[in-house]
Write a structure and sequence with these properties.
Number of helices: 20
Shape: globular
Structural class: alpha/beta
Low-confidence stretches: none
Mean pLDDT: 96
Largest sheet: 8 strands, mixed
Number of strands: 12
Radius of gyration: 20 Å
Helix content: 25-40%
Length: about 425
């Protein structure tokens, strides 16, 4: 493992002005780092408006087993829509945007990369594969470490009223462990060591610590969003759409998939979805987190262990029973146009399907989710999603060729 201490005094660049980006930026600044926040045009016009003056207020209940907490108003060192200014001389570059924003940000980022930089993608969602492919296409040979995490370090939301966004992020919970890996895998030890120099990861590094995945595909299977969000949103759609209508007296924005949508039958579908992921990982020869079945049958599903950890027997420290009310979960989704479907189906579920086709693994539950979500949106996500194995640069790869690429960066095309 390399000595990553050179990152200690370098600026941190955060790319993405949404809830996760703003929270990582504010948290890292409050943790003592020099921080620059970037967002793309035209989104920056709204997402970065006024931040030079107001800073970002970070607060919230911040639930976690260890009671790690950091709150305050963070005045960042630079707020910009100029990516060159954001990343010049930076040590760690955090990509913290929705996956549909990866390609445009990567294309802007690549010409400005510098040797020794560490790119961390929250959550990866196949971002490392896409970034490496675009680097090859754009002729970039900079010696950088590229890796992804299974999730963001928090559950967080931007405060807003009727679409107006305040410079305020509320953190619902903080992770005490996250799963991470680099592409190629041989860089993973350095990637995980680098997380010690990102204050946004302090609750993790001071908690149970990062978990080392087995290749970046492990991290993409470890992303809990598709397996939790998609079945719960699709199968709980009637409750969601009737919230504040037939279920009178409720503000539509207070609906929570976790608190109001989950039930034993939906959790069973989530568990079967997860077993298809296990079959994919086994067929390809990569890792995947191991969850006991009962962990799915809780109002926080398998997410709980990220911030509350496991007991000595490997069971959740805290269970939120399905037969009891709970306000523990984040709010949302409020419509079928939410990222729980518009991102997690045509990206996460779609790539799982494509991997199943390429490596001979049936994925009937995952396929059914794609089909029904397509019916909701009156489109065929199998055909319309730009996310496929060609887009990621791993189409028609025999398993041995794929593993050589994932583990050692060998790409002979």
């Amino acid at each position: 493992m390399s000595n990553m201490e050179y990152l200690k005094d370098k600026p941190i660049a955060v790319l993405g002005g949404g809830a996760v980006g703003k929270t990582i930026a504010a948290d890292s600044k409050l943790g003592g780092a020099t921080v620059r926040l970037f967002d793309t045009v035209p989104f920056a016009e709204k997402s970065l408006a006024g931040l030079d003056k107001t800073g970002i207020l970070l607060d919230g209940v911040q639930h976690n087993r260890d009671c790690f907490e950091r709150s305050g108003r963070a005045h960042l060192d630079l707020v910009t829509s100029d990516i060159a200014k954001a990343v010049e001389g930076a040590g760690i570059i955090c990509v913290a945007c929705g996956s549909w924003g990866h390609e445009p940000i990567f294309r802007q980022l690549i010409p400005h990369l510098e040797d020794g930089q560490v790119i961390m993608i929250f959550a990866d969602n196949f971002g490392c594969l896409l970034l490496r492919k675009l680097m090859r296409e754009m002729g970039c040979t900079k010696k950088v470490i590229i890796g992804g995490w299974s999730s963001a370090p928090y559950g967080t939301r931007i405060e807003n009223i009727n679409g107006y966004q305040f410079p305020h992020v509320g953190v619902k919970y903080r992770a005490i462990t996250l799963r991470g890996a680099a592409l190629p895998m041989k860089d993973t030890d350095d990637f995980i060591e680098a997380s010690k120099y990102l204050p946004a990861m302090d609750a993790v590094t001071q908690g149970d610590g990062p978990a080392k995945g087995k290749t970046i595909l492990d991290i993409d299977f470890a992303n809990v969003n598709p397996v939790i969000h998609v079945p719960a949103t699709i199968l709980g759609v009637s409750t969601m759409e009737n919230w504040g209508v037939i279920f009178c007296g409720h503000d539509k924005t207070t609906y929570s998939m976790y608190s109001h949508g989950l039930c034993p039958s939906i959790c069973e579908v989530q568990y079967q979805f997860y077993n298809e992921e296990i079959a994919l990982a086994k067929a390809i020869g990569v890792g995947i987190p191991q969850y006991k079945k009962q962990m799915f049958f809780s109002r926080r599903s398998v997410l709980t262990q990220e911030y509350m950890g496991l007991d000595k027997d490997g069971n959740d420290n805290v269970v939120f029973p399905l037969d009891q009310p709970s306000n523990e979960g984040n709010t949302g989704p409020n419509s079928i146009n939410h990222r729980y479907l518009t991102e997690d189906v045509p990206i996460g579920c779609k790539i799982y399907h494509d991997l199943g086709v390429q490596y001979g693994v049936p994925t009937p539950i995952i396929d059914s989710m794609i089909t029904i979500a397509g019916a909701f949106h009156q489109k065929n996500f199998f055909e319309t999603s730009r996310y496929n194995l060609t887009y990621l640069g791993i189409d028609n790869m025999p398993k041995e060729e794929l593993l050589a690429y994932l583990n050692n960066g060998v790409y002979n095309r």
